[in-house]
Amino acid sequence: MASSIVYVQKLGRMRYLPTWEYQKIIAERVQKNVKCGKDPQHTLLLVEHQPVYTTGIREYEYSAEVETRLKATGADFHRTNRGGLITFHGPGQLIAYPIVHLKSFTSGIKWYVCALEQTIMHTLESLGVVGAHRSPHTGVWVGENKLCAIGIQGRHVTTHGLALNCNVDLQWYDHIVPCGLVDKGTTSISKELSRDVTVDEVEPYFLKSFSEIFQCQLIMIDKKIDEG
Amino acid sequence: MSGSAAAITNMARLLLHGVGSLLPRLSASHHLYTVTLLPHTLHRHFTYAATLLAERKYTEKHEWVAVEDNIGTIGITNYAQESLGDIVYAQLPEVDAEYEQMEECGALESVKAASELYSPVSGKVTAVNTAVEDQPSLINQSCYDEGWLFKLELTVPAEIDELMDEDAYKKFLKESEQ
Fold this sequence. Notes:
The complex is a heterodimer. The relative contact order of chain A is 0.20. The radius of gyration of chain A is 17 Å and the shape is globular. Helix content of chain A is 29%, strand content 29%. Chain A is built from 5 helices and 12 strands. The termini of chain B are far apart. In chain B, 31% of the residues are buried. β9 (145-153) of chain A pairs parallel with β9 of chain B, so a sheet runs across the interface. Chain A: It is an enzyme of class 2 (transferase).
């Protein structure tokens, strides 16, 4: 298959909601491009969020009471349209939102989620993290602890993505049952390597792995895409 | 019930409700049936082409719709359920909600991914399959039968003619794989 181009945009530190709105604008553009037979302009957004708890479409599992309690921690709270249950995003976590037209790579959500997991496994290997593995629960784990969460939306053009714990404060997870898995925990690259590993350090390894697994060329872009 | 009483009942049912009332519901293509009525007085064999039985039409989003009496039953195809993987949650539309053709009307979740559901034709939702709400794996196990998703009353019946029949969909799948 011909190598696709994916444009990479670093958004820095951004709150959840405006980032999600931005994802939707890009997804719409990719959709339009594909419909008109143009280059899709697949885009990979890299961002760190201010502290936020988010749920997926099974949001009925989380009552207004839960929402109030979590907001009291000082974090935002949003109910989204992605798959997966509740999770936390915050500083020290590398978040990647690949907004891609799936069929341009290959068909199928299953393949896509698997490719994201493989990208993370590859990244962790490059960094020297030992014992990382995939799981029927999705995401990437070390033992019983989750290192990277995945939750996506879209069977044609994808939104949402993955969150890789670099040096995030794991105490934020104490307020929830992450992804609804009671007997599991969370971990971070810093914890596994017993040293401070920042998002900036992990990013180039992640991008290299993404480019290899998705067999695509990455082009960094600066400007934010306008709505027009 | 005695043999002749049963035959008379069946004839009455046939006259009132048509062939479909006597036969198991099938959602495959056409079959021919022979029905024998009033065994002692009248031996007439009625043969009906079962166009009364709903034919499935398909969309490029890998969904199917089977229309009977202007009510469309909708589900996803085998290709779609395989592609999604194990479905853990079905977010179905609300009864009485109205949709235009190809408007997003729900979602299916599998492997931490939420995939859109579209309405293959315009209409008003008349029923949702609560069985798949309780047991989403039904969609994987029986996507054309027990794993149906919702029914709607068509508001633009002509839209059905635009959709692919079984052969066209098979061809579409073959071409998509290339």
